[in-house]
Amino acid sequence: MKNPFIIIALIMAVMLTGCTSSDIVLPKIENDDSVMYISHLKENAITALDLTTGREEKVSLPFRFSSIVEIKSGVYMASVKEEESLYEVNIKENKISPYMEIETGILELKYDRENGLLYTANGKTNNIQVIDIEKKEVLKEVRVGEYPSKMVHHGERLYVLASKSGEINVMDTSTNNIMNSFSVNERPEGLHFDGKNIWTGGHGATGELNEKVFAYDPETGEEVKIVTTGLMPIQISQVNGDSFIYVLSHGDHSLTKFNADTYEVEKKINVGDNPSFMIADGKNLYVSSLDGDEVFVLDKDSLDVLDKYAIANGPYLLFKGGVGE
């Protein structure tokens, strides 16, 4: 007969941790405020990196995240392209848990915190799903162009980049209907709304290599500005809507900063081998170098490298509490 005290101890341990058999325990580092979480692309794993000490803790996962978005402080929603589930990542409770069933093919997530709505972009079905996150209920599916890979939410507009059909679909979030669609540059990638224009970059036409980002009037679809930045720009961002736009380009391994008012390039630097993802907070930028196996910390104003960390096996998605776009 099994020792009853051992059984009771095991039950109490499960109750105390708050975890179920389907939960995955996150790597734990005590100083939560300084921790960056890194999802890998070349292995199924997630790393917790203490930006103060450089200490790392890694745990294996049964999948790789395709997108992650903050729902509230310390709680994130994540998608896995091949999985029929969304996952809640709770860094306060130190766990990853299945959240709700969903179709496979999710490439991108965006969250409307004011209305509690999650938008999912499905590259398999070419649909945007509108989800009431609290009720775990799909409110509507909206058909868009081929392979919706990026989304930007601003006010009552959701901008969707359909990369294979080379178009931007503009959805009115008050009705969840597509109100406008227009063609953009060939093989586009990256999407950003600066308050007036919608920007995209990408690889360029077959046989050509693009080194520009393009601004479009979201009402008319007219191309209004072109800025030369780096080879194959894949991500375009601003920090808290300030006057500078940052462009990450993986073709020439660069990060470019240009003025959003004058469109003049202020600075361009190298950020490792195949930079693939970027986030920011009030004063710093954080960039993952997929093939260089590094994560860079940069001053957002000077673009000086403040620190860099060796992170093996393809660091990709980054998330950190209180971090903006």
TrEMBL record:
The domain of life is Bacteria
Query: Which lineage ranks, top first, belong to the organism behind this chain?
Result: Bacteria, Bacillati, Bacillota, Bacilli, Bacillales
Q: Supply the InterPro entries for this chain.
A: Haem_d1_sf, Host-pathogen_enzymatic-act, WD40/YVTN_repeat-like_dom_sf
Read off the SUPFAM superfamilies from this record: C-terminal (heme d1) domain of cytochrome cd1-nitrite reductase
| Protein name as catalogued | YncE family protein
User: Which Gene3D superfamilies does the UniProt entry name for this protein?
Assistant: YVTN repeat-like/Quinoprotein amine dehydrogenase (2.130.10.10)
